[in-house]
């Protein structure tokens, strides 16, 4: 069960979501640190390192948008979502598959490329921002390509249900992904049935909006970046009234 009743109205449901950008960073961290077991195959960063090494010494031009910094992530760089999404991207998956098709011996190339492509599509589903049509099905608002999008969610849930690390229990990111997939499906059905909504802009389900708002509130105090409740009240009032009039 990934929802609970609204405390003021039992007829309303509140669905629970983990922060999707944080989840993809956690998957990346475990992949580069200890590897992931996907469908009995142990996927490690060695695959990426071999592909990068081959491309650096080869005369062939294979498009890679990543480098060693994406797999040797340290300190504050681990907080950057961009590094994780660039690693788990369709471009990286296609580049690995291209190396393998040219006859290079790369460990678990096909399995790694398939997993990266799935991670890319899954993140696209939870990061839709525009209601306009898009030729890439997973990045469209959830509900516009329901069969394709649900197939991606189901495949991701199936992987996360299994033991992908040498641990007796599922890790937090596995539970978070499973909960997100179930909540998105349940939320869409609930909104469609009760409010006739046709799609969901899923980028509004993560905590980026809250973080941006909090950053705006802190920045309005200059060097006083730890506002009291009363200061937040006045800063919020100023933000609402004057945010479109400031130069």
From TrEMBL:
Pfam families in alphabetical order: TNP-like_GBD
Record's protein name: Transposase
Ranges for domain Transposable element P transposase-like GTP-binding insertion: 22-132
InterPro entries: TNP-like_GBD
């Amino acid at each position: 069960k990934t929802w609970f009743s609204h405390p003021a109205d039992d007829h309303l449901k509140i669905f629970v979501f983990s922060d999707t950008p944080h989840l993809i960073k956690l998957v990346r961290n475990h992949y580069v640190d200890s590897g992931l077991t996907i469908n009995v195959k142990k996927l490690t960063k060695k695959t990426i390192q071999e592909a990068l090494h081959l491309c650096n010494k080869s005369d062939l031009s294979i498009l890679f948008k990543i480098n060693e910094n994406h797999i040797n992530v340290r300190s504050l760089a681990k907080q950057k979502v961009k590094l994780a999404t660039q690693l788990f991207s369709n471009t990286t998956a296609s580049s690995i598959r291209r190396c393998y098709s040219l006859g290079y011996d790369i460990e678990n190339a096909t399995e790694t490329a398939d997993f990266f492509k799935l991670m890319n599509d899954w993140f696209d589903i939870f990061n839709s921002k525009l209601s306009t049509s898009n030729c890439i099905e997973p990045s469209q608002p959830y509900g516009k390509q329901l069969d394709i999008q649900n197939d991606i969610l189901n495949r991701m849930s199936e992987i996360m249900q299994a033991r992908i690390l040498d641990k007796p229990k599922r890790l937090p990111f596995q539970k978070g992904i499973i909960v997100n997939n179930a909540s998105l499906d349940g939320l869409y059905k609930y909104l469609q049935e009760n409010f006739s909504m046709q799609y969901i802009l899923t980028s509004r389900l993560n905590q980026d909006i809250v973080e941006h708002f909090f950053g705006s509130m802190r920045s309005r105090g200059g060097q006083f970046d730890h506002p009291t409740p009363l200061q937040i009240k006045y800063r919020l009032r100023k933000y609402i009234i004057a945010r479109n009039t400031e130069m």
